Amino acid sequence: MRIEIKRYGNVLSSRPAGREAALAMKAYQRPKPGEKIELDFSGVLSVGPSWLDEVLSALRAEYGTKRVVCLPTRNPSVIESLKAIDS
Known about the structure:
Elements: E1 2-4, E2 11-12, H1 15-28, E3 37-40, E4 46-47, H2 49-63, E5 68-70, H3 76-86
Parallel strand pairs: 1-3, 2-4, 3-5
Helix pairs in contact: 1-2, 2-3
């Protein structure tokens, strides 16, 4: 299942907004058992580490670390936010 992150805005920066987005994703996006959850950052201008941390933490807690993946992107804010979170 692919989730288009641009549905939640094109500048994603605050922790409360990330928490809200994660709750919406869990409420309205129902993956099949064992299905990967792919986060697609196409069309997003900027992502802050706090927003991304909220989303990834909530989804990984619900579905497991191996099922939640970020699709490859050239967006430097996504790349650097992932480095900050996963370090």
